[in-house]
Amino acid sequence: MRPRTFVFITMLVLCHLPLRGQVLTNALPPSHQGQGPRDQATPAANTGPPGTPKGTKGPREDGTGGATRSLPEDPSEEALPVAQPEQIPQTGVPVSWKADRETWVGRTATLYGVEDFHYRDYVLRADKMVYNQETSELQAEGHLQMSGGPADVTLTASRAEIRLNMHTARFYDVTGTAGIRRAGRALVYSTPNPFVFSARVVLQTGEGRYKIIDGTMTNCRLPKPDWQLLARHIDVAEGHASTTNTIFKLFGVPVFDLPYLRHPVDEGGRESGFLIPVISTGSSIRGFTFGEQVYVVLNRSMDMVLGTEYFSKRGWAPNGDFRYKGPGLDHLTARWNALFDRGYDMVPDEGPQAGQMIRVNQGGVDINALGRKDFSADSRVAANVEYLSNYVYRLVFNDNYWQAVSSEVKSDAFYSRNDSGFMTSVRLGRVQTFASTTPGDEARILHLPSVRFDVLDQPLRTWPAYWGMGSSIAHLGRSEPGFHAHNIGRFDLYPHLSVPFVAGGWSVVPEGALRLTFYTGSEAPDIAGVNGGVPTVSHDALHRTYGEASIDIRPPALARDFTLGRWNRTLRHVIEPELIYRFVGGIGSKAQDVLLVDTTDIATDTDEVGYSVTQRFYLRPTADRSGSCDPADAEHPCGPRPREWASWQIAQKFFINSNFGGALIPNRRNVFETTLDLTAVAFLTEPRNLSPVISRLRFEAIDNLRIQWDLDYDPKAGRLGADNLYAGYSWGDTTIGIGHALLNAVDEQGSSASLIKSQQLEPFLEIGKQNRVGFNLAAHGGYDFVHGALQYAGVQAVYNWNCCGLTVGYRRFALGSLRDETQYLYSFTLANFGSVGDIRRSNNVFRDPTAPPRY
């Protein structure tokens, strides 16, 4: 190595800067550490130091926003200056508070009179809080309140120890509620299933997870709940509360023990498990009844119930239901009931087995499904399907009176699509009508399937005319005792054209149509009565072509106002006349050969005039305050609005063609399209020119009073064909009403027409509602004047406390010799929990709030 190189290297080693880490803190502690104010660091801005205004943000929960230190005042305190590195960005969750007074010692704040201490979505209040910024530990005492969190928990406690960043806490002497949210100063329920609890200690083990030690839970209001569940520990997690060895107390009295219990506390409020057993001794037909069901939550959109009941006099009766609720109007509901009847012994008075002991089995199956699925705004599939194995099962064991006496079972499933008034649909239909309780005495009508293409009335280019069309192709079937028609095809095409005119208050609508119908089969009527009036099926094809024309004339309505000065009202009387002429030709006597399945097949020749007069009464206030009042002002309303006070329509038809082109068969029940359009009561047994007079009256002149009276009078026979009256009046929580139905309908016995009569009276009374606090009562029944017997009567009384209720009921069925039953019902209900007893939706006397009004 050269000398000069050696010298440069030696000088560089001896004279270079020290290459070592900078000393940031003094290795030796100051002599007065922790002794005075020099120890306290100067806080950073807006981190909650002394003197910071109320409500300012505090440090982050992880302490990264800690205070920094400046240079010491005394150089002897540290050997080297303290470097000031750049502050780490704050990444924790901020807290804020409002307090009457606060003091600081290092990173610990003592707060007095805390009004709002915010952390995430929790809000705390207390007389005193001690909060450590570094550890996020919080100690609170004195009138402690906490609300918020994922379960909307609101609780009060004497004191608590909380670790905010860990979501853990220990509360003492607690009263709390899950499912209540604060809206301003008010508390509102955020779930229909609130959960109220009290405890000696409550441990919060995580976000939304609690453990209640030596506590109670209920759905009632504190401090005096109607019922409570006492347990040594209750675990609240994942939307439900679970516990073991629970004591159930009713009005402060221990009643029984529950070995295990799960109760939903979240907004969904659904939890799989066994339901409360059904125990009943009140039926004279079923005997002692015991049943159990299990509730299964399949997912957030589907659930189901499976169970069975045992009737001591009859046998096992399985039942269940399935529910699905999808987006929009999509839904599917299925219910099933069955009975494996072991039968009962009886001795018939007549028939081939008269005087002999026989075993009668009345069991059966009843399944019903209702659903809908929307594929788009213009297309959907829907179905209402029911299967009933036999009518006797429904008549004897159905708890709903109106369903028990219904002798029809209908099933429909269809797909439809609407594209700007062009409608395509596919339908599967089945109608089953039971004529009596005798097996096989029934009629069945099938549409398997029926495909339709309809065009709603459309403007015909720029002309003042509208056109429309109906078309269908169907596979049909019809069967009844002694008559069976299967595999019948039908094609139907029905275009029509109308040209409406409106001028000077007159409305004139002429219309014309052409209809072509083709059948692959037909029938031959039994006019002579050789086969008891039952037609004979023929496999000969049938073509039916006819044209029709009509004109609808509506003159200007006549109106007159009457001033009712005493009531400060104006009564407007409006008279609306209408005249319709209709002609159908081309069918003739061929109508007798058409196989009757639905309304498409009952068309006949006709030449008729229809006339009607409708009177309407409108009531409105005399002084118009609409310009001087605010419709949104509930305290100063604008007064009653105009409303229809009453309406009354009288109509009749005059048949110029009295025998309908030869379609009418004397001494038979003839139901034609033109007569069914006027009234549903059959009245044609011979040629005639005048139809019955129909009257339709609606009366709502008095608030909360509604009367509907429909009457059909036949001047030729000199009798009422139908007389139906429904009236109801409500005041407060009380509704009283009555229904009266009279029917004189033409029937057939063999080849001659006879008359069947029916007259029933149906009163009803309802005071309050089934879930209203206090006393509530409902009663209704049905009396048959023809048989002189009370067919049905039901009375149900309910008394509800704050969150529990007791119900007792009585029902009576007298439906001939098959069902003569008396029921004594009871139920004890715990709000949002369940009920013990045998009163269910099917045998409830109170009106279903989702159903239309009774009157």
In short:
With 855 residues, this protein is mostly beta strands.
Low-pLDDT residue spans:
16-91
Share in helix: under 10%
Quickly give the structural class: mainly beta
Q: Give me the count of strands.
A: 48
Q: Kindly state the mean pLDDT as a whole number?
A: 84
Estimated radius of gyration: 41 Å
Strand content: over 45%
Terminal Cα span? 122 Å
| Major sheet summary line | 30 strands, antiparallel
Indicate the overall shape. Answer: globular
Number of helices: 4
Question: What can you see in these coordinates?
Answer:
With 855 residues, the chain is mainly β. It contains 4 helices and 48 strands. It has a 30-stranded antiparallel beta sheet that branches. Strand 13 (240-250) and strand 14 (253-264) form a beta hairpin.
SSE blueprint and pairings:
Blueprint: H1 3-15, E1 57-60, E2 94-105, E3 108-119, E4 122-132, E5 137-148, E6 153-163, E7 168-178, E8 180-183, E9 186-189, E10 195-206, E11 209-218, E12 227-237, E13 240-250, E14 253-264, E15 273-274, E16 278-283, E17 287-299, E18 302-311, E19 315-325, E20 331-341, E21 344-346, E22 358-360, E23 364-374, E24 379-388, H2 391-397, H3 401-404, E25 408-419, E26 422-434, E27 442-459, E28 466-480, E29 483-498, E30 501-503, E31 506-519, E32 522-524, E33 536-538, E34 542-554, E35 558-564, E36 569-585, E37 606-621, E38 643-655, H4 673-676, E39 693-699, E40 705-714, E41 719-731, E42 734-749, E43 752-767, E44 774-784, E45 789-800, E46 804-815, E47 819-830, E48 834-837
Antiparallel strand pairs: 1-2, 2-3, 3-4, 4-5, 5-6, 6-7, 7-10, 8-9, 10-11, 11-12, 12-13, 13-14, 15-17, 16-17, 17-18, 18-19, 19-20, 20-23, 21-22, 23-24, 24-25, 25-26, 26-27, 27-28, 28-29, 29-31, 30-31, 31-34, 32-33, 34-36, 35-36, 36-37, 37-38, 38-39, 39-40, 40-41, 41-42, 42-43, 43-44, 44-45, ...
